Amino acid sequence: MLELTPKKLSDRSTLRINPIKTCQPVGAMYAALGVHQCMPHSHGSQGCCSFHRMFLTRHFKDPAIASSSSFTEGASVFGGGANLKTAIKNIFDIYDPEIIAVHTTCLSETIGDDLNGYIQDAKIPEGKLVVHTNTPSYVGSHVTGYYNMISGFIKYLSTATGEKNGKLALFPGFVNPGDMREMKRLMKLMATEFIMLPDTSGVLDAPMTGTYTMYPKGGTTIPEIRDLGNCEMTLALGELTSEFPADFLEKKCKVPYKALPLPIGVENTDAFIMALNQFSKNEVPYEIEEERGQLMDILLDSHQYTHNKTVAIFGDPDTVLGMAQITLEMGMIPKYMVTGTPGAAFERKAAALLEKFGVEGCTAKQSGDLFELHQWIITDPVDLLIGGTHGKQVARAEDIPLVRVGFPIIDRYVHSYMPIVGYKGAIRLAELILNALMDRQDRDCEDEDLEMVM
Amino acid sequence: MDSRDKVLDKYSSKIYKNRKEHVIEIEAGEPQVIAADTRAIPGIMTNRGCCYAGCKGVVTGPLKDVVNIVHGPIGCAYYTWGTRRNKAKGDEHTKDFTQYSFCTDMQETDIVFGGEKKLRQAIKEAMEIFNPECIMISSTCPVGLIGDDIHAVAAESERLYGIKVLAFSCEGYKGVSQSGGHHIANNGLMKYIIGTGDAEPQKYSINLLGEYNIGGDGWEVERILKRIGYHVVSVMTGDGSYADLKNAHTADLNLVQCHRSINYIAEMMKTKYGMDWIKVNFIGLESIKKSLMDIASYFGDPELLARTEAVIAEELDEIEEGMAYYKSKLDGKKAAVYVGGSRTHHYINLLKYLGVDVILAGYEFGHRDDYEGRDVIPSIKIDADSKNIESITVTKDEGNYKTFHTPEKIEALKAAGVPLEKYDGLWSDIAEGAIITDDFNHFETEEFLKLLKPDIFFSGIKDKFIVQKSGVPSRQLHSYDYSGPYAGFRGALNFAKDMTMATYTPVWNMVQAPWKSEPTLVGSLGGIE
Question: What ipTM was assigned to the predicted interfaces of this complex?
């Protein structure tokens, strides 16, 4: 496996090998699927739409619907206006969504298609909506596309009517439906009224009933998106993902925001609960206290199996930072933290985290890739890998266990239903990490050292 | 109103006018015409991909000793990294780069100022780190628009590093589907690789074209061919290599599995090297038997024929009992098959053998000849989209041109039923009454599912869970749901086993919650129990 990777660090400035990011439009498609009765629409070649639907379907093992402007050479020369106009008519005629969420591609961005103009000129049936966002694939990553689409919805729909609704606006970050469910559960337990955008729970983890519906029950509704402008404040979870739309909502509708890390691990979840507490003025109920206490119990009971174990974490910036937090809390050393998504803030935040825990000798890198991470590991190995499916090659090559967390996980089932956020999510992560490390100990030890009790 | 009309009737007049030519019901008698290889309608949820997917994703991607650099923003390289199951294995002589994804990862400044410099640097780094024998560059959408001359960079790099460097202008917007990309890839391999090697010709040697080794299909076919005594010069392109492809011209015969994606090379090699080609199908017992006998008949050696018969008998013996069992479980079922540009046809006979009728079928990106047979080719009108895909012409290579048989012998073989340069298309095997839909879309999938109620639906990942959520078992015929091989005798058994499993998994009996069919409130009314 990966035998052609040189053992010594290769000098490279340009060639991207085995990336840890993909392009903006797929993130926009994912965000749009979290809006109720919404058809995500890809304005570009139909291959983009096909690739993105495949990517999302493989991760969620659930249908990911989306349509395409199906550009041909002609559209690429003369502009995609006619294609979009036709597409909008056909989508409403045949698939009858409430809203179409258009995102662009590197193709339509390079030719400079004016989406604002196209949409203004389009025939949109009474009561139906078309919104858009620009997602040039040559800027940022899928995470950028995700928050651009959220901002697109806000730009078109959210308004401040002057009457506050008493609700909290919540941007959940680039997380799974299972995480969104957990965030909603915690907010309900804190008796906090909220609007969450997007909400892919009930869409990409929809139940099997024997009847297929194109628009399942889940998703943020259009009235909710409109009403975001009347929220008291925004909680942006995942600072590198959600702060952008939170800032946008603040500028547009004067909704102040607070940005927090993804609630992965103890302290990050504490910060989330405290923010809910400050917002709602409701006391933290025993149920949450109990969960936190259980987590403390588990981490204490098991700390000897994680203490000083080294880990390499790769994936989306906020997920990696969250995983770094919880591994540090478990006494582990996040020796390598890599995201493919560009942005210097990632490295700053990672450094601050290491300083907080007084840990030295770790490396954090933005715009990195798995090829480089592999070469680091060859030179100086780790005990554990945490990240998505694509890490399985490195895991196999170097015989290191891999705990699958984040996007994309295209070679396992169930993960998207289960949270990694909140105390419950931390308990699940603790179990995944402990099992990986302890299974390894059981596998590697001598017969005479096999422990019956651990 | 029949099913076809019921579905088409729901379309607006404009779409109806377009789709009615693509959706037909098979009738006995007159040969039927279908519209194919035309533009998808914007907004209709087509299953099609793009030119890049056909070129890099399908044809050039599987070549294992090639560093395939995707020139463009990151996405397209990412989506074609390890996702198609074209298995490959390197050895001490052949490097295997298929575990890697290479990309220039173009940024905004590259779009504005051009990406050639970046491409040159990427090639330099690929040389320094991996030192490959061959590099291929595939363009994605923006590259064609900003005018990067990837062909010039390729030529320059070839001179600079003394290796083979090919460039493919396979931008996603070209053509109407993956199909254009296949053609562009075929042109490149033919122009720059095939015929550049100097291997000695060997006895009974063949090339296997249009076999991508999905789930190990190619390995299973090669195992059988080698058992009989053939020398496989090259496989295009599953587990294939630049090293082997160079010598493809030294073979005696081309075997074409996937007609759609690679018939261009077969045709061009016939013109350039005089090499005959026959259409084979290694999916389904009857098809494999016929294909193996056809190949043996071509070579005409009695010993080879005898060995072919013996191998067939032994291979059949190995799976007979299993096949009989699965046939007993599947007999009488109805299937929908919707894949690719050749694969749908390939599975019909296997399903028939298992007692399964195909009632709904179609291709994602097939051309009319894939449905109606190659005889229709001269009458296919070339539209503007097809014109955008270059069609190259080759001429006789005097030094390497050889004919295995005299024209008379060829005619005799054709008369005996060996499909030399012949493919009769889906029509030759599909049952009367079946509904055929070209460039099937999501709406038609849903509607036909409701009307025709197949017992199983074979297509791809984008449909799979839609179909399954409707209560119909679904298996992917692009990726075999991570199973396989499905080719060859043993592959047929794998397929039968997987189809049985999909149909009989206990979950199907538990989908309905008991409270949906039984009363949940038990009480008494007016004191009467």
Answer: 0.97
